């Protein structure tokens, strides 16, 4: 584990190599993330979706491999347990002036590399709280095109285009200022009138996947309606920012 601090306050723990069952799509993630006042604003290993791991990058279909965790949505069958799970593995630290800079490998079930990733995470003071900056860049190998998909791209209705930077919030009464599927520049989630998180950083055809019933979660979704294809030898980059504020 490693840690992020703002002004001496511990605001986030980064779990680098979690010892998890492959069916949970093991990957590095942030948890717990806290407000400056100490309120925990992430959740992990939840009873309803144990593969929801704090704040992480996670995709349901990477060239046919499930790097989200749990059951796979199969067209005309629904969610089905398959032997198709992969993992995102820490592959070394990079020099960074502040925060964390990391190399990762996105691997299939046989540990073959599907994508390489550069990830940069920083925490800084911001008006009313602090801001998390989360950059990730996914690069394909020469000669290997990679398709990123979601349950929606496999036929699930109900705007289930999740996959990308995903944040699982704790249980509570959550309210968002944008609708599910929005393309707004930012979305704010308020939980129990105790804290608020403002997410920003959509790019391309990304959408906000928002859940406040059953569980609370936010995803900057990459494959909302159609697969997102990364051509061979090219890079897909995103920069998400999350403003985290106490309200009481």
From TrEMBL:
Pfam families given in the database record: DUF6807
Which superkingdom is the protein from?
Bacteria
Record-level Gene Ontology MF annotations: monooxygenase activity
InterPro entries in alphabetical order: DUF6807
Q: Which UniProt keywords apply?
A: Monooxygenase, Oxidoreductase
Full protein name: Methane monooxygenase PmoA-like
What organism does this protein naturally occur in? Answer: Paractinoplanes brasiliensis
């Amino acid at each position: 584990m490693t840690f992020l601090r703002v002004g001496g306050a511990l605001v986030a723990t980064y779990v680098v190599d979690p010892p998890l069952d492959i069916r949970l799509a093991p990957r590095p993630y942030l948890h717990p993330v806290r407000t400056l006042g100490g309120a925990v604003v992430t959740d992990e290993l939840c009873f309803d979706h144990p593969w929801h791991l704090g704040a992480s990058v996670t995709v349901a279909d990477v060239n046919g491999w499930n790097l989200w965790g749990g059951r796979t949505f199969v067209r005309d069958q629904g969610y089905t347990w398959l032997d198709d799970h992969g993992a995102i593995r820490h592959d070394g630290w990079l020099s960074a002036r502040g925060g964390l800079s990391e190399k990762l490998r996105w691997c299939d079930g046989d540990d073959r590399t599907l994508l390489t990733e550069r990830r940069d995470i920083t925490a800084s003071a911001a008006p009313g709280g602090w801001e998390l900056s989360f950059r990730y860049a996914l690069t394909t190998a020469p000669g290997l095109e990679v398709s990123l998909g979601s349950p929606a791209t496999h036929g699930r209705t109900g705007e289930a285009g999740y996959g990308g930077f995903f944040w699982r919030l704790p249980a509570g009464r959550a309210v968002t200022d944008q609708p599910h599927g929005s393309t707004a520049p930012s979305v704010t989630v308020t939980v129990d009138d105790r804290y608020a998180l403002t997410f920003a950083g959509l790019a391309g055809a990304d959408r906000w996947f928002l859940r406040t019933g059953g569980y609370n979660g936010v995803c900057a979704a990459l494959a909302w309606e159609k697969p997102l294809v990364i051509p061979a030898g090219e890079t897909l980059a995103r920069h998400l920012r999350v403003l985290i504020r106490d309200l009481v």
